[in-house]
Design a protein that fits this description.
The protein is α+β, with helices and mostly antiparallel strands and about 100 residues long. It has a single domain, classed as Archaeosine Trna-guanine Transglycosylase, Chain: A, domain 4 (Roll). It contains 1 helix and 6 strands; from the N terminus they run αββββββ. A 6-stranded mixed β-sheet has the order 1-4-5-6-3-2, with no helix packed on it. Strand 4 and strand 5 form a beta hairpin.
Length: about 100
């Protein structure tokens, strides 16, 4: 009886720890484009929306993900608000971004 109670308690503890770890991990992927030259992608500011439009290459970028860019020696983080992939080449995309900290 005591063994079964200990197993249940230990199982509850593990379930609680697993849930905590899942919540503490970011729910987005970070894509590091700091090694890319500005000539390898296009980034333009959209003044009326305070957003950015970016065209670049790379697979696996999704809405909500973050992109790191290096411009003028400064690293800036952006969040992907929306993204669409071109049909050809398949890794070419265009996205709407906002600057985040």
């Amino acid at each position: 009886m005591i063994q079964r109670s200990k197993k249940k308690s230990f199982g509850k503890l593990l379930n609680g720890l697993n849930a905590f770890v899942r919540r503490s991990q970011p729910s987005y992927n970070l894509h590091d484009y700091t090694h890319h030259q500005p000539s390898e992608y296009a980034l333009e500011f959209i003044a009326e929306d305070s957003k950015y439009h970016m065209t670049g290459q790379g697979m696996g970028i999704c809405q909500g993900d973050r992109i790191l860019l290096c411009q003028d020696g400064q690293t800036t983080r952006y969040q992907v608000q929306a993204i669409e992939y071109y049909a050809s080449p398949a890794d070419l995309w265009t996205a709407l971004l906002i600057k985040v900290r």
